[in-house]
Design a protein that fits this description.
alpha/beta; Rossmann fold; four-stranded parallel β-sheet
Length: 476
């Protein structure tokens, strides 16, 4: 669903929404609830209306009947994530449909996708909102942001009273948990631990694990990650015939047999709002932070930008260029070939996960949840899911800059907070090694991250929330 021009896109969405509904009918499947994630499948609203109108219902009754059991989830406040099509394109591809099947005028048909007092394009999010009675964002903050964005649809009520609610995302624990932790949980918590995923008291028992055992498990997962990183970096540089000396400098902090170097990861889509280059905002200060030979830090960057997203690709190139400078070789690594396998290795192995989107443009985010399942710690802007989880002890928070109307000042403020946290808290805590060769304070924070985040941000809790707050009401 992410390639091609708008002609390809509208064809895909017609196949998904209209074709998908007809396929379900052919298979004799009769859903009680229809859940639309983003507007991509919203044409199913038109197809279901067509069925009812063919059976004698009028337009208003058909729309209300369809909307009654449609759940709509919006996953991003960023405008680029919401599909819209020129009116003439809609007429070209669906003219027969609204005229012959829905028996609507062109004006009435196009009004289904008309964002109030806005661009004349047919907006798929508008269609999804008008064709549903149950809708949500994917975190508490995102629900509020979405309610504000969509307030024009319900001008008679305030934004906090309109139908937009929220269900915060979660992750599938057994899929994202490193095997080292799975084996430990089986041994210490019993083979039925997956039946207690939402039991916060049950997971507090992790706090009682011996620190040395917890640390060793984390280091094993980290070693496995470093082995993968080394192999991938070597493979990506082999065609360039770089010297052994340069390769050694590049990989000096990735020795799987010495996983004791503070490792911070950033891996995701390189969309501009995620600010992958915020760390580079003050390059001299970053150089100072990374110049301490007694307390080395490794930053690992991985990810992809959409082929059509040139600004996103430029961010990736800029990070790579900085990583090649003499002062940053081996301290900032850009790993090519980002995929699900590499993602799993990174979230299970890093010590800290960096997340610094432009507030409040992160709808939820789930990578930080995956890191916490594996004993990693989050360093994040208080955006998306993080405000619901952060308790002052289970990670670090970058409070959004008050200069939200000035990009340069905002980025400067957020970067300064990031540098201060690294210099004053994160690096000192990690290297505050006790008599057993690790930081007891770090292990305490790592345990806190796991025990507070795992039982709250998992798919079991998420699905229960959907069931209670959206699916059951939609079925009535």
């Amino acid at each position: 669903l992410y390639g091609g021009d708008e002609h390809t896109r509208i064809k895909q969405e017609i196949i998904l929404g209209i074709g998908g509904t007809r396929l379900l009918r052919k298979l004799d499947l009769q859903p009680n609830i229809w859940h639309i994630n983003e507007g991509h499948a919203a044409f199913l609203i038109l197809e279901r209306m067509r069925e009812l109108i063919a059976n004698g219902q009028n337009y208003e009754t058909a729309l209300e009947a369809v909307a009654a059991n449609v759940v709509f989830t919006t996953h991003t406040p960023v405008p680029a994530g919401h599909d819209h099509f020129p009116q003439d394109l809609m007429i070209n591809y669906l003219g027969y449909f609204y005229n012959d099947d829905l028996k609507l005028s062109k004006e009435t048909f196009l009004s289904l996708g008309c964002w109030p007092n806005d661009h004349p394009d047919f907006n798929m999010t508008t269609l999804a909102i008008q064709g549903s009675r149950h809708m949500n964002g994917v975190s508490k903050l995102h629900g509020k942001v979405s309610a504000d964005i969509c307030a024009k649809f319900w001008p008679e009520v305030t934004a906090n009273e309109n139908p937009m609610s929220y269900v915060t995302n979660g992750v599938h624990v057994s899929s994202m948990l490193a095997r080292e932790w799975t084996e430990l949980f089986d041994e210490v918590l019993g083979s039925q631990w997956q039946n207690h995923l939402c039991d916060k008291d049950f997971w507090q028992s992790i706090s009682n694990l011996p620190d040395q055992q917890f640390w060793n498990i984390k280091q094993k997962a980290k070693s496995r990650m470093l082995k993968v990183i080394r192999d991938m970096v070597i493979a990506q540089h082999l065609p360039h015939q770089i010297s052994e000396t340069h390769l050694e400098r590049l990989l000096k902090h990735t020795d799987p047999n010495n996983p004791n170097i503070l490792t911070i990861g950033f891996a995701r889509r390189f969309a501009t709002y995620k600010r992958a280059t915020l760390l580079l905002n003050d390059i001299d200060r970053l150089r100072t932070i990374l110049s301490d030979i007694d307390r080395p830090v490794l930053f690992i960057f991985a990810g992809k930008a959409h082929p059509a997203d040139m600004p996103g690709q430029d961010l990736l190139k800029h990070i790579y260029q900085i990583s090649c400078e003499p002062d940053f070789i081996g301290k900032i690594l850009v790993v090519q070939g980002y995929d699900l396998a590499l993602s799993r290795r990174l979230v299970s192995g890093v010590d800290v996960w960096l997340n610094n989107p432009v507030y409040p443009q992160e709808a939820s985010g789930t990578s930080g949840m995956k890191v916490a399942l594996n004993g990693g710690i989050n360093l994040s802007v208080l955006d998306g899911w993080w405000p619901e989880s952060y308790d002052g002890e289970n990670g670090w928070a970058i409070k959004p800059s008050p200069h939200d109307d000035n990009t340069e000042l905002r980025d400067h403020d957020d970067a300064r907070t990031l540098y201060e946290l690294l210099q004053d808290e994160i690096i000192p805590l990690y290297y505050e090694q006790g008599k057993y060769g690790y930081s007891e304070g770090w292990v305490k924070k790592s345990k806190r991250s796991m025990t507070t985040i795992l039982p709250q941000f998992n798919t079991t809790r998420m699905l229960n929330d959907y069931l209670d707050n959206l699916y059951i009401p939609a079925k009535k």
